[in-house]
Structures are given as C-alpha cells and as structure tokens.
Design a protein that fits this description.
The chain is mostly helical. It is built from five helices and no strands. It has helices at about 10-35, 40-60, 70-90, 100-125, 125-130.
C-alpha cells in the first residue's frame, strides 16, 4: 500500500496480498471447522475479509478511474477484518493484548483502520484526481 502506484511493484504486491489472503482464509475455514461452535466467528471474518479482497481486486482490474475508491476501500476493509480476526483469535495469548477486554480486540483494528482509510480517501492525490474526472 505504500509503494508507488502504477505498473510494477504495487500490482505485484497486491497480487501477493490477494493470494496470501486466500491461503489465510482457507486456513481460517479449516481451523474453524475443527472447533466449529467456538470458532464460528473466525469463519465469518475470513469470508468477509476474502470477499472484500475479491471486490477490491475486481474493482482495480476493470481499470476504471471511478472504481479506484472502491478498490482502496475494499482492500483496506479486507486488511482491517483480517487484523480483527487475528487479534480476536490470538489476542488473549499476546502480552499486551491479553490485558484488554474482549470488546477491545474486536474494535481496535477498526478504530485505527477506518480513520486512516477516511484520511486516505480524502487526501490521496490519485483518489482526488479520480474524483475530478468526468
């Protein structure tokens, strides 16, 4: 997300993220099936994260400047949901996170991620340019 946009590094990293996301979501599905009643939330978060990633990838592959905000939003939501799943599942075992209430594990990734997403949607030069196009 921090690399220069255009052909080369950013699309390659994005493809790597997408395929890694698929592996992570398949892993989440397998793990939640092993402990189904307790880990249903993991399955749902995996589906939501991968779904957002698919929407983001499809929006960018259409090469329409009007879909750039959709791409950015969907990829960011995918990452936020992935982090939420990680912290909800692993937070009780991590040094700093184990002292937080369970609700914080669910909300902190969104409380940090969505303001960054909103700032990016308002200020990023490529997104400002895509809004200016007819």
């Amino acid at each position: 997300m921090f690399s220069i946009k255009g052909p080369g590094r950013h699309p390659s990293a994005g493809a790597g993220y997408f395929w890694s996301l698929l592996v992570a979501c398949l892993t989440m599905a397998a793990l939640s099936m092993l402990r189904w009643p307790e880990d249903t939330h993991l399955f749902v978060l995996g589906i939501l994260s991968f779904g957002a990633g698919v929407i983001g990838r499809m929006a960018r592959r259409r090469h329409s400047p009007g879909l750039l905000p959709v791409h950015v939003t969907a990829m960011a939501v995918s990452y936020i949901v992935l982090l939420t799943a990680f912290y909800v599942d692993n937070g009780p075992h991590l040094p700093l996170w184990r002292s937080l209430p369970t609700l914080a594990l669910w909300l902190l990734p969104s409380l940090v991620g969505f303001p960054i997403l909103a700032w990016t949607l308002r200020r990023h030069p490529l997104l400002r340019r895509s809004r200016a196009l007819p």
